[in-house]
Fold these 3 entries.
Entry 1:
Amino acid sequence: MKHLSILVLDDQFNLSTVACIVGTYEIFTEANNYWKRIGKTPLFKIDLVKASNESKKENPICAIKASATISEIRKSNLIIIPSSLVRSYDSASKSNQSLIRWVEKQYTQGAEVASMCTGTFLLASTGLLKGKTCSTHWAVAENFQSLFPEVILQTDKLITDENGIYTNGGAYSFLNLLIYLIEKYYNRETAVHCAKIFQIDLDRNLQATFSIFNGHKKHEDKVVLKAQHYIENNYQDKISIELLSKKYNVGRRNFDRRFIKSTGITPLDYIQRVKIEAAKKSLENSRKTVSEVMYDVGYNDTKAFREVFGRVTGMTPIDYKSKFNVEYKTRI
């Protein structure tokens, strides 16, 4: 029988953490029970694992009681790191150093590791994500990238899978990661069963549809900040990168380099994302047609608009409107 460790954090603990822990326990337990019913041996022994038995201040709303400590688990096959609070994560990492070292050791001994939402911060603290691709909640992407620049962050992805390390996007999308892991460890039949029992959409692979682009402004390059504000205030116009660099007396190559260094994306990508964010809001809240929205945000080419919109959101403009505009859904 394989061993599953669901980590119980000593701090940075909130209700999302509880949801991840409870959800993982329930779904893997159901997968085990399903195998029992079809005459197979349950695949995993499941433990809720914490760093030690030392008493810690409990969450005033609820508490999770661990079934084992890391000193009692010599070998685990799969480790789940739940979501956690991100505030002042440097200090949180220090208080979780024993867990971090244990996860790293287990991985070198053959364990696979999966992080949920902001649990990626603890996973990245192990050093195991260095040079690898990962996802996390889009709302904390800028903070994550500033702390772990050596990690390849792709928040458009809902799930990443690389060398026995799994990550997923934000909030309750951890349920999709669990179904993914159930299929990988058990089989497709078991994954479909669990998806039906817990009513989870199968095969969802993007969180781009749910992301909100707020720019990347936690940097100190004043020229780039001015350019960002200019783009956000004039996105309806056709903005030339060449003219933008001249406007701030910076050579084109140097402007591109500084912009990418400060924001993580090119000036052109930034312009496109600002336009698409404005288009999303209009599609959500107005009665305008897709063509009207397209012209409003500065596009004249329908094909180009649809291509960029699809790349950023993972949906067509009309599908996005039908999904998020209440009036439109009522009319159809």
Entry 2:
Amino acid sequence: MKPALKLYQQGLTLIELLVAMVLMLLVAIATVALFNVSSSSYRTVDAGQELQDNARFAMEIIGQAARSAGFQDRTGPTVDGQNYTDSTFGPVAPVKAWRVEGANNAKIDQPAQLKADIPAAPYGSNNGYNQSDVLVVRFFGATSPTDPSKPDGSMIDCSGRRIPYPSGSADLGISAFSVDIVAGEPELQCTSYNPDGGAISTTSIIRGVESFQVMFGLDTNADDIPDRWVSADPSWNSTTALTNWNNVVAVRVGMVLRGPPGSGQGRSATASENDLYPLGKDFVGDSTESGMKLTPADDGRLRRSFATTYTFRNAVR
């Protein structure tokens, strides 16, 4: 019988240990890099979905207001023997009663003036965040057929308040949209007026709105089709051209929204590829204002542009 072989356990050499450590370090580095890429991709996808949801919500609110612009309830109760007619939204009205109005590179500095006499100026001058604009629509409410003292809920402003049928020509529902800074973050706001109590309020719609641009479609031949797209600047919105507001039959709204810090995936080395166009790169109409293009800061945020067009269905002639 042969004697059992004896096995001797030997240690690793220094070179073998160093090679093993390097291999383990490479695996750890690759794992961490893969985790960082996955986390960054998740943040970007999540932020992109949030921007889509925010834009869809904001556009729905603005669209509801646009569809309400100039509305008048022909079945509403009479006051002093007359219903309010389209002339209320005409240029000779005693109040600022155009169904749609706007301001270029501005924000709403004096909300109470949104329903005041025509000479009043509710907007600041050249103080829009990133040259953002203001959009204002006005309309009449509707009263419950069973209780004339209460609105029926079919007409609401941009803050969701029910607007009653007017008791006077100044009792217009108002939905005004603009951008302001709150706690360091730009947000799209709705300033509304409810004639039921005369309360003016400002409500936040969505945050992270870096640019809000508006172009108005003018009908110049009474066929209800936009013939020109113009911005609300003095070149056409002068004191002697206020009747142009009643020729507006459509509005194009564009926004640039931004996500939280760290949600972006880096910038292009070509500077022009980082520019964003709120209304679309090829949509400028008759305007040359610089607000049509936004060059964002290199701050690691994801940004997206969204734009849509609304037509006004309550024509004023």
Entry 3:
Amino acid sequence: MATESALQRQDSKIRIESWLARADERSLADNVRKGLTSRVKQLPPKHFYDERGSALFERICDLPEYYLTRAEREILTERAEVIVSATEAGELVELGSGSPDKARLLLDAMFARGALVRYVPVDVSEAALTDAAAELASEYEGLQIHGVVADFERQLDRMPQADGTPRVVALLGSTIGNFPPASRRALLAQIATLLGASDRLLIGADLVKDPAVLEAAYNDSQGVTAEFNRNILYVINRELDGDFDPPAFEHVAFFDPRQEWMEMRLRARRKMTVRIADLGLEVSFARREEVRTEISAKFTRARLRSDLAAAGLEVREWYTDDEERFALAVAGLLG
């Protein structure tokens, strides 16, 4: 049961709850201490997404090399009406919502059917969530928006209860690929608790493909992804009084063919010691030592089906873009 009080802002159409005031601060501190004192240094990618990081990621989505967003939007543009018709959904819960561009395609389809009741965006960036909520509230007559500022990996118990309206819970953008296999299945099992018999999970998955295409998507020519990667160091400096010199770290991204995932790392350009005052921590880096900041697993249909089955879910529908670079799977509870 949730015991922490939410900070709430509410009007007749929009309700915003924030659960991150203390929980996220603890999470960042714990993750940084554990990750930077491990034998192999690593930091979780969820900490990229402060206001600056969210803005950088929006720029990444428009880069010519970054096909993922365009491919997923292509599927949604062609299939949103079919997905909504099959699910009879009137509520959309979007985990890691960010920009409302993709959600709007599903909301449009629900609205056209006269079924749209509620949108529940969930994001760690309160500014991005609030802006999106205000934008959408003005577009859809009668739409109720219940925004949740939370880390969905840890705080799914903060989600509003279903009210009997069939819901689609969406985890788009191949966000599921940021989790290693055991954590991925555990998260999917948690998400399954949000579903009733008539509800569905809509999950985006980047597919296995030519490594050259994958590596280009994470090493863009404009250097936006590199700056996004380094943003995690700016977050640590600001939130934990660190003294990282972010330009002293080189962006590295490569495909691991054995694991079939992309990795992003930060590589120290020189030997240095970093102090993180709020943790009373000093961290030494050798020249060219690396910190892993993200994995992004790539999927086959069989792999995603297996992950979903381990969480008590089964694939009901499977859609890809014309070039079969990306997939959207619609899943429901087993049985």
